[in-house]
């Protein structure tokens, strides 16, 4: 049977090529998903600026809910008590302990020198308040490029010109010097304020460092972080580099260090968590890899099963002849399984080889778009490939076993009859399974309507898959049910005899055409469901955020934050009727403990002016100063607190602050925020400064010239918030794109296989008087009808996800998103179906009619 299986591959090349491509792509994507999972579990990020210190002591990088599960990376950089530096330095076995503090600092070039800097790869241009331009050197204008000179040893940096800085002087990374020499004056924007310094020296890192540094004297560095000392916020250092003495090993020294609670000592690649944000927890990547891998597995199972089923059904005549010539059901089953698994194993090997390239490409795309930290290292060891191989083989064995089982059990005479007139009948078990998935789709869609926006996004998405699975299982019945007499009459009126033949073929060959219907339906549901669900959620979240803030003029900064003096100047400008600083962060309520937000934090807004227009149910926002807070009424009821009570809020830098409730303020349902004074919240953010100024004006306002700031309308208000939402949206778009590519290939495969297998039928039609053109027209009608049915069914499945999410997030069943996405997808499906049908028809009708009738296959 193995020899017979090998010989049959020659005559069924198209069908086996379709299986080969489906398995190749599926196994490569699953091994890529396994690589993402391993990367999330390992979280390896080699340090750069802190690579010189064998041990980095810093605060805990992730928040662990006291009474909950999971963890989430802190949204702000936080550190440890400076007193710990001396304690560590006096620990036996420690040679030295060097503190590190990072703060926003950007070199500003003159406009004339900006072009030269840009030619040399120096940086980017940012708008200033008066519309002029200033050149900002550094990889990120808002990056934490400022440090005290003492921390240069943590990289290490080596002076290549000049000397260490004194007060009023700086040392620049050689990438920022642009020809400047020691003794020259340079302008540096420190914490949003432009200052002039003398260039003391130029230094070069001893290995690759992405973000160039600017080093200050200790006194200047301390002054730059003065904003953190507001409201009695204790001084902190971001990290402490610990160097072991001669003869002391790093693991031994780590055991000796006596660290307070919430402080950890990091070594090797774990040190990257102290330098790069977002590497503290594996949860996002684990969720991403799980959703991605699960979707690929489901899509591959549906597509491969449809392709294998189509291939087996097309061979019923030859399988029946084998049975009639004496082959046992077991031998037939073994032959079908063997030939399919031979092709699949070769494809699996190719897919695993492609898996590393695919994994690196997907990970690079994710890191390049901010979904995962760029510093994270992609790890893909042998386990992801082994897991992908096992899962692929299991899916293949189940699908081919199911298809081969019926082909082997069927009686020879019945098989020959069904080869001539295929029955459109599905078993009772399959019917029940399809009904269960259809009911699940309706149930998920209906329940999503009554959920919160966060839960709706998580629960409503699977409706596209359950709906697609229902169509895949019930495909033949769906095709016959939708081919009503009205549609048949329409085809007859429009295409005459060809229309009648197309309608008859669609009804008689409903099982075969279901193999083409499934990938089109699946791709349509996933593409439109994911895209419109994300655009709807994004629109709802942005509207909820911006609608609660009064502002017609927005000032934002590209250099780390709004400087202290700017707000005082702007709010007193003529024409300004209301003004407020704006700070955004995230945090948790711990005293009393809020069980509604455990690993998912509350949005925090810092304000100091009358720009929030949510309805005040109790108290007054005028009292939002000092150590105070305003809560949503629902949160207050849940926690059983009210105006005048004190609560403990864990802020984004791990600080637990005690604040008094001064107001209960409503927000958009499902998108409520906790309000804090801007000064309090800013002191606990990474930059230590407000990020924007909101103005309500009665006339055009001149805000003056402030380096690195941009003045605009309300569009600036949502720009930063919109970018934050883009992470979740981009994940969905990536999954949709990969699923679309997979199912597009599957559509091409199944259409080509189905058409090429009908060579004998086309030969008979041509012998009875039909021309090539008439047969081609019939084929176009058949596949266009199937494409239309697939689009309609996929759109219906997508609606069970999109419409409920729209109701849950926006209050009405009208999704948000560009209409060109829908129109573009329709065009894309047509571009897939029409050319493939034409090419396959030309190949199928290339032989002479008599040769086609006598062909051994098809």
TrEMBL record:
Its main location: membrane. Keywords: Cell membrane, Membrane, Transmembrane, Transmembrane helix. The keyword Membrane applies. InterPro entries: ABC3_permease_C, Macrolide_Exporter_MacB. It comes from the Bacteria. The keyword RNA-binding does not apply. Belongs to the ABC-4 integral membrane protein family. It is found in: Cell membrane. It is a multi-pass membrane protein. This is FtsX-like permease family protein. The chain crosses the membrane at residues 285-312, 341-363, 383-408, 429-450, 456-479, 513-532, 730-757, 778-807, 819-841. Residues 291-410, 734-846 form the ABC3 transporter permease C-terminal domain. It comes from Kribbella ginsengisoli.
């Amino acid at each position: 049977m193995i020899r017979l299986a090998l010989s049959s591959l020659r005559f069924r090349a198209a069908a086996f090529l379709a299986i080969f491509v489906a398995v190749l792509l599926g196994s490569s994507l699953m091994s890529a998903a396994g690589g993402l999972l391993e990367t999330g579990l390992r979280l390896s990020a080699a340090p750069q600026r802190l690579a010189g210190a064998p041990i980095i002591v810093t605060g805990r990088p992730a928040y662990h809910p006291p009474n909950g599960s999971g963890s989430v990376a802190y949204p702000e950089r936080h550190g440890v008590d400076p007193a710990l530096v001396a304690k560590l330095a006096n620990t036996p076995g420690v040679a030295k302990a060097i503190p590190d503090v990072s703060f926003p600092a950007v070199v500003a070039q003159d406009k004339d020198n900006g072009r030269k800097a840009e030619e040399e790869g120096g940086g980017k241009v940012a708008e200033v308040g008066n519309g002029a331009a200033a050149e900002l050197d550094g990889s990120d204008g808002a990056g934490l490029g400022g440090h005290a000179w003492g921390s240069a040893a943590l990289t290490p940096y080596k002076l290549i010109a000049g000397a260490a800085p004194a007060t009023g002087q700086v040392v620049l990374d050689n990438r920022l010097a642009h020809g400047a020499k020691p003794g020259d004056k340079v302008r540096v924007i420190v914490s949003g304020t432009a200052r002039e310094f003398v260039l003391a020296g130029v230094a070069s890192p001893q290995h690759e460092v992405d973000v160039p540094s600017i080093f200050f004297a200790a006194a200047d560095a301390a002054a730059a972080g003065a904003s953190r000392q507001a409201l009695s916020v204790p001084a902190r250092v971001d990290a402490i580099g610990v160097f072991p003495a001669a003869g002391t090993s790093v693991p031994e020294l780590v055991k000796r260090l006596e660290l307070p609670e919430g402080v950890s000592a990091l070594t090797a690649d774990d040190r990257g968590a102290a330098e790069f944000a977002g590497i503290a927890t594996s949860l996002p990547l684990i969720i991403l890899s799980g959703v991605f891998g699960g979707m690929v597995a489901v899509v591959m199972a549906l597509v491969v099963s449809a392709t294998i089923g189509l291939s087996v059904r097309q061979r019923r005549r030859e399988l029946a002849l084998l049975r009639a010539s004496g082959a046992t059901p077991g031998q037939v089953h073994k032959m079908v399984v063997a030939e399919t698994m031979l092709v699949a194993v070769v494809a699996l090997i190719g897919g695993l080889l492609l898996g590393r390239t695919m994994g690196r490409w997907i990970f690079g795309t994710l890191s390049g778009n901010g979904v995962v930290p760029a510093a994270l290292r992609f790890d893909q060891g042998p386990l992801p490939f082994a897991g992908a191989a096992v899962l692929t083989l299991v899916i293949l064995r189940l699908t081919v076993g199911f298809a081969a089982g019926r082909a082997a059990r069927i009686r020879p005479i019945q098989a020959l009859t069904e080869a001539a007139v295929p029955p459109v009948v599905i078993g009772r078990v399959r019917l029940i399974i399809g009904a269960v998935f259809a009911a699940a789709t309706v149930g998920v869609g209906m329940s999503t309507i009554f959920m919160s926006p966060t839960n709706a996004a998580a629960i409503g998405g699977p409706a596209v898959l359950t709906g697609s699975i229902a169509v895949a299982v019930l495909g033949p019945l769906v095709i016959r049910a939708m081919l009503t007499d009205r549609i048949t009459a329409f085809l007859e009126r429009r295409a005459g005899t060809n229309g009648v033949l197309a309608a008859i073929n669609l009804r008689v060959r409903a099982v075969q055409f279901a193999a083409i219907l499934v990938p089109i339906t699946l791709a349509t549901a996933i593409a439109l469901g994911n895209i419109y669900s994300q655009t709807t959620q994004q629109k709802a979240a942005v509207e909820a955020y911006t609608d609660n803030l009064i502002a017609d003029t927005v000032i934002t900064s590209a250099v780390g934050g709004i400087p202290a003096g700017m707000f005082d100047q702007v709010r007193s400008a003529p024409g300004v009727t209301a003004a407020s600083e704006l700070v955004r962060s995230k945090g948790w309520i711990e005293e009393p403990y809020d069980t509604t937000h455990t690993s998912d934090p509350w949005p925090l807004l810092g304000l100091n002016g009358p720009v929030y227009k949510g309805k005040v149910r109790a108290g007054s926002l005028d009292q939002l100063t000092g150590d105070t807070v305003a809560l949503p009424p629902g949160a207050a009821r849940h926690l059983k607190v009210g105006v005048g009570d004190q609560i403990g809020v864990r802020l984004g830098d791990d600080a637990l602050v005690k604040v008094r409730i001064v107001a209960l303020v409503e927000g958009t349902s499902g998108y409520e925020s906790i309000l804090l004074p801007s000064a309090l919240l800013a002191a606990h953010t990474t930059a230590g400064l407000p990020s924007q100024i909101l103005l309500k004006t009665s006339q055009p306002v001149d805000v003056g010239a402030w380096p690195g700031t941009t003045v605009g309308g309300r569009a600036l208000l949502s720009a930063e918030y919109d970018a934050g939402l883009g992470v979740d949206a981009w994940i969905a778009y990536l999954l949709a794109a990969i699923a679309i590519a997979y199912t597009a290939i599957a559509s091409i495969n199944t259409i080509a296989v189905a058409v090429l297998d009908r060579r004998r039928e086309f030969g008979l039609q041509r012998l009875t008087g039909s021309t090539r053109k008439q047969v081609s027209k019939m084929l176009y009608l058949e596949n266009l009808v199937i494409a239309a049915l697939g689009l309609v069914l996929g759109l219906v499945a997508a609606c069970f996800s999109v419409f409920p999410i729209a109701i849950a997030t926006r209050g009405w069943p009208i999704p948000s998103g560009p209409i060109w996405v829908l129109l573009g997808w329709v065009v894309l499906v047509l571009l897939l179906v029409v050319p493939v049908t034409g090419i396959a028809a030309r190949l199928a009708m290339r032989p002479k009619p008599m040769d086609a009738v006598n062909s051994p296959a098809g």
